[in-house]
Amino acid sequence: MDTQTLQRIGIRAAYRAGRILNDYFVGEFKINKKGTIDLVTEADLASEKMIVETLRETFPDHGVLAEESGASGDNRRDQWIIDPLDGTTNFAHRLPIFAVSIAYARDDQVEVGIVFHPISGELFTAIRGEGARLNDQPIRVSETAQVRDSLLVTGFPYTVATGDTIRPMARFARCLAAAQGVRRLGSAALDLCYVACGRFDGFWEEHLKPWDTAAGMLIAAEAGARVSDFSNGPYHIRHPEILAANPHLHPALVTLLHNEDS
Ligand code: 2AM
Ligand code: CA
Ligand code: CA
Ligand code: CA
User: Fold this and answer.
1) Is the pTM of this model over 0.95?
2) ipTM exceeding 0.90?
3) CA–CA distance, 221 with 140 (Å, rounded to integer)
4) Ligand nearest to the CA of 66
5) Is there an atom of ligand 1 within 6 Å of 10 CB?
């Protein structure tokens, strides 16, 4: 199966899901709790169903790893990694910062990444080795070279409610003190895409899942970002830490994040 076809069908699924999310966003939807602060809405479920059905029309034998339904199909060679609604907390509060994230991985290597922000119509795509695009135009990371001039973005780990707060907060404080500014949008997929197109200069977060980062990290990497863990080790979608930044800033951000006492 050629990557163009994989991308085309993935985009079809993202557009169909995006239409569903936009409709729910201005209408009524039920919200359920998966944990104390972890939400799932009817929109997450409807979006995921549409994505999986659309992919299965063309790729009935491919495996699926999706946030709400987990892993299905025993094909690990060809796998779709899906977040049907990245930014559910925003969505539930009617804050228009959420996305659909769809990645195709072969033998656990992400080959195609698609992130769609249905409110704006912005579609971010990448094919491994072929660069990244926003609405079909090539995109690049920023050229910002000094941390002092950089706008960074992060997410707070959800373990903050129950577990380790000291180290994540120390990292946050160090970056906040060093940067021009730090933002917290609530959608890891969009954070990575906004690094890819240079709106942000760097992004870090921990405790993310494969469906949060699979598409966005390929888009960022193909736009020229360096993607690693906090100690400049290799990043993989099952790794708990991710740092993505333009190559000028990446070493300085590793120093800020990977501090002796963190
Ligand atoms: P979600 O909206 O798809 O759940 C924001 O920091 C990132 O963390 C988002 O990508 C968000 O994805 C994810 N996230 C939100 N709530 C979470 C939770 N309770 N546990 C783990 N990840 C969560
Ligand atoms: Ca997510
Ligand atoms: Ca989600
Ligand atoms: Ca979720």
Assistant:
1) yes
2) yes
3) 10
4) 3
5) no
